[in-house]
Amino acid sequence: MVKILLPVDGSAASNKAVADFIQIIDWYKEVPEIHLLNVQLSLHGDISMFIDKDTIQQHHHEGGVKKLQQARELLHQAGLTCEEHIIVGDPAETIALFAVEQSFDQIVIGPRGLGAVKSILLESVASKLIKLSSIPVLVLK
Fold first, then answer.
1. CA 112 to chain centre
2. Residues 98, 78, 61, CA angle at the centre, nearest 5°?
3. Are strands 137-139 and 106-109 parallel, antiparallel or unpaired?
4. Which of 33, 42, 113, 138 could disulfide-pair with 13, CB 3.0 to 4.6 Å?
């Protein structure tokens, strides 16, 4: 069975990628094993001096659950099941590493909704992931 990683950040573009993925699910010979991933950004500074580790982990978990909610609902409405993962780190690097560690066959992601000027100045997670990943990346526009 093909194992697919769908990184999501809760944005409209991310949820559109999930909806678009559902539309092309019949491209696969059999329904793939679907995993949703949300990467929470690390808290910066010396926050751990003021807040305990469990509270920080709970913060990341609650944030990740919220970011995964709509994607999960879209998949369930389409009759698809998924596993969910929440990790802390740099989005592109974390997605690429997680995909290798968990032996995914493909990463499916949406492009970031950058305007023409911003896309010149800022590199999207999708474009960074394409450069970093040794696993095929399908960008649904």
1. 12
2. 40
3. parallel
4. 113
Domain that holds residue 72: 3-139
Number of domains in the chain: 1
Write the CA distances from 87 to 1, 42, 70, 94, 99, integer angstroms.
24, 10, 18, 8, 12
**Mean pLDDT estimate for the chain:** 88
Three-class DSSP category at 24? coil
Structure pTM? 0.88
Tokens read off for 86: 């929440």
Give the CATH number, domain containing residue 72: 3.40.50.620
Torsion angle (degrees, nearest 10) of CA 118, 121, 127, 129 = -120
